[in-house]
Amino acid sequence: MESTPTTDHLWELERQVFQLSTLFEVAQTLSTCRDSESIYAGVLAILAGTFGAGRAAAFARDRETNRLRCLNSRGEPSAEIINTRMQETGAYSVEQISRQVRALFDIPQENFFALVALTAPEQNLGVFFLGAKISGEPYRAADFDLLNAIASYTANALENLQLYEALREAQEKLRMENLALREAVKKEFAATAILGQSEAIQKVLNQLRNFAKSEANALVYGETGTGKELVARAIHFNSKRADGPFLGINCTAIPENLVEAEFFGIEPGTATGVKKRIGLFEQANGGTLFIDEVGDMPVNMQAKLLRALQERSLRRVGGDREIVVDVRVIAATNKGLPQAIREGRFREDLYYRLAVLELHLPPLRERRDDVALLAKQFLANFEKRVGRQIAGLSPEIVQALEAYDWPGNVRELENEIERLVTLAEDGQVLQPEQLSAKFARQKLAKPDGARKSFTKLRDAIGDLEKQMLEDAFKKHHGNKSQMARVLGLSRLGLQRKMERLGLSGKVEEA
């Protein structure tokens, strides 16, 4: 025989439905709000309507001042008036604000007033205050159970929102830092940042500016240490692609069996334990890829690079999907690619794809006028980096630097200056004897060459003097007095010069 529901059972069921519908309404509000003020206002409206409170207020803790501030008020007084009262009375704690709100809401009895705090781990996020119910009924234990449940959900939503806002602020900070860094990099790699006053480097700078206006692939020739990557970066950061990525790779630094995966990426599961990897071409999409020592690229990889340049697309290793990329390639080499083409070590069709624009960087020995300028700049850089204050370079050390052939080019000069700064004392003027041993070896090797040069010059001068004397001899018929007068010599000086040149027997006394 079925039992008939009692009034208490029906009342309990009604209460549960009421609580669930209220919680559902709160959940819907929390899911649509995107800022804390909207959350406080939305939940406060639900609470006031659910419990029939004529007056209600929501307080949130300010993250900067760590004080509670009224964000929203329903009924009189307004949030502005409440905040003014809080400031006048210095009420900032929950208990202090509770007393002030009771006074403002004209609530004489505790049982006609509800307070629920929004708490998260180690922090009090805010407080909801509810005034007396319009019905005149007191707040019951079941009401506070529902209020606490709503407060818990609201606190979780506010805490998640705080984390989201902190993440968004961090992202914006990173974005601004990234913009500042890009601007600094653009300035560092501007064409004007490449030092040099020689005719050779000025020609390079003019070409660089023109290359930056183009989207064509480029090939940079130059010995090791001439600054090929520096030039490639300058082209990129002065081009329309400056806001895109710049990535570089050296073909000699990658094992042959990994070159394709490095350039084009690899799909997961291609081999046991292999994870997905994005290649350099995809990473450089919208920017520039610098391929150094391209002459050392394996021949089988050259064909795949050629296809990527022609089709502007690629396939990852183990993949079957074409991935479209927009990448400008600047390649560099210290070798003669035409010779490599003749020997079958480099594809001619790839050469023409890469060498749409060509730039030749002069070695440092062909731009000796720039050595002092570069040395002083490197000196300033390393002084700052090492924390030293050097009094400068002596004229003698500048002469020694300019006389050296620099087989390692600008990089070798930079390393030499770093060595000098590291070993020098503060306030010291750098001298030639502080240079590394290779300068001493070059100095010892100089006399032979200098002696040969002097001998050649001496012989040339002697030949010229001999010819002048022979011409004077013929013109003045061997008259020593006339010859000496015309040549600006004394008779004795003329006689000695003729003896030295083996002409004394040809001159007759007049």
Outline the structure in words.
The chain has 4 domains: 159 residues, GAF domain (Beta-Lactamase, 2-Layer Sandwich), CATH 3.30.450; 164 residues, Rossmann fold (3-Layer(aba) Sandwich), CATH 3.40.50; 68 residues, Helicase, Ruva Protein, domain 3; 61 residues, Arc Repressor Mutant, subunit A. The chain is built from 18 helices and 15 strands. The strands form 5 sheets. Strands 6-9-12-5-13 form a 5-stranded parallel sheet. It has a 4-stranded antiparallel sheet with strand order 2-1-4-3, sandwiched between helices. Strands 7-8 form a two-stranded antiparallel sheet. Helix 1 runs parallel beside helix 5 and helix 6 crosses helix 7. The longest helix is centred in the N-terminal third of the chain and has 48 residues. 25% of the residues are buried.
Could you list some keywords that capture this structure?
alpha/beta; Beta-Lactamase; Helicase, Ruva Protein, domain 3; five-stranded parallel sheet; four-stranded antiparallel sheet
Beta content comes to: 5-15%
Mean pLDDT: 82
- The number of distinct helices, counting runs of at least 4 residues, comes to 18
Specify the helix fraction band: 40-55%
Named CATH topology of the largest domain: Rossmann fold
Largest sheet: 5 strands, parallel
For the biggest β-sheet, the strand order reads 6-9-12-5-13
Overall shape: elongated
